[in-house]
User: What shape does this take?
Amino acid sequence: MNTDAPITEADATSTEAGATSTEAGATPLDRPDAPTAPGTTVSYVYALSRAGTALDTRAPQLTGLDDGALRTVTCGELSALVSSVPADAYSEEGMRARLEDLSELAAVARTHHAVIEAAYATTTVLPMRLATVYLDDARVRSMLHERRADFGELLTWLEGHVELGVKVYADPREAAAAPPDPAPATGSASAPVSPGRAYLQQRRAQRRHHRDAYRAAGAVAGAVPDRVSALARARVAHRPQQGDLASGPGENISNEAYLVPAERTGQFHQALTGLADDVPGVHVEITGPWAPYSFATPPTAGAGA
Assistant: This one.
């Protein structure tokens, strides 16, 4: 099971945007008629899949948030992977408080994604957003019934595909440290340069390296879609990651996800091999394969790779 995805890749858009309360159609837990008594639990949904798959057998062997046992809630041809969690801790107010504690939020995200990755190893799944909660299993069944057509089509669309991430980084310091190209011979010795002029030349060179590194990184990022267009079914451009979310050297300037047939992941890597090898200060990172987190909503016009 690969658990490197939680904050660094798969759920970055959800956690950065603060989208952690409910999935579309989920019941907000701070409604006046929502249960708030101590010890009350609610249904936390991790992922959806086809009913009758190996996931039904696998679910009881998994452990979810707060060490809760996993189960499947089925309606027609769809199943939801669910566990019970404390209502107060996973209400909108409770999750808002967790957003202020990054270590606790990271722990929730790791468990959430570990469950999804374990399910994904068994069958095609549709990952749900972090903290998708419903008042009870009956509400989960109602959601599955109401959206059965959309979810069914989406699972068919994702069948046999994985998500691969491509990030491009710009590192001006590395670019500045790279040996310069040989200067052409002038035929005469250069005149001595004063310390003040040398300082100004150094500062101009630093600014040039900084600007050139970002321009080069932009050119590399722009070349990625063309190289993999024949291999990817869809592409999503995420916001570049910052701080702890950005694991590579320098600054993340491009953060894209691609939906790729599972059997073509090797070709995908090969297509991007050497893309930035001769560009000082530019790095390309390929992550995955993951469950298709970035493609858990139906594709829209223009989303195709």
Observations:
- Residues 41 and 86 are 4 Å apart (CA to CA).
